[in-house]
């Protein structure tokens, strides 16, 4: 199997102005735990408000979750958000 694979990745999300939006992705992999991050419209979100957790499932298999929060969403927050994960030379 591949070293990394997505178990959950955000799809279409609809919200009202001023509400908090949370996007979550989950990755499972073998080997080393991943580095994870987010892009918006093809550009990295360097200072994104995200929480990340890694849980070992066995000695060399893990589950990693990244959740991006957008508080008080505005029209300027609209766009295409994508989660990425990188480990062992492989990136999704």
Q: Number of helical runs?
A: 0
- Category from helices, strands and their pairing: mainly beta
Helical content band: under 10%
Unreliable spans are: none
Query: How does CATH name the architecture?
Result: Sandwich
Radius of gyration: 14 Å
- From N to C, what is the helix and strand string? EEEEEEEE
Q: How many domain regions?
A: 1
What does this protein structure show overall?
One of its GO terms (cellular component) is neuronal cell body. One of its GO terms (biological process) is synapse organization. This is UFO kinase. One of its GO terms (molecular function) is kinase activity. The protein is an all-beta fold and 92 residues long. It has a single domain (4-85), classed as Sandwich (Immunoglobulin-like). It is built from no helices and 8 strands. The strands form 2 sheets. It has a 4-stranded antiparallel sheet with strand order 1-2-6-5, with no helix packed on it. It is elongated and about 45 Å long. The model has no long low-confidence stretch (mean pLDDT 87).
């Amino acid at each position: 199997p591949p070293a990394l694979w997505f178990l959950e990745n955000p799809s279409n999300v609809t919200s009202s102005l001023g509400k908090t939006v949370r996007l979550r992705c989950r990755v499972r992999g073998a080997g080393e735990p991943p580095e994870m991050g987010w892009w918006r419209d093809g550009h990295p979100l360097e200072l994104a408000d995200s929480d990340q957790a890694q849980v070992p499932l066995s000695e060399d298999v893990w589950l990693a979750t990244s959740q991006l929060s957008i508080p008080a969403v505005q029209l300027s927050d609209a766009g295409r958000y994508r989660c990425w994960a990188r480990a062992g030379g492989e990136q999704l």
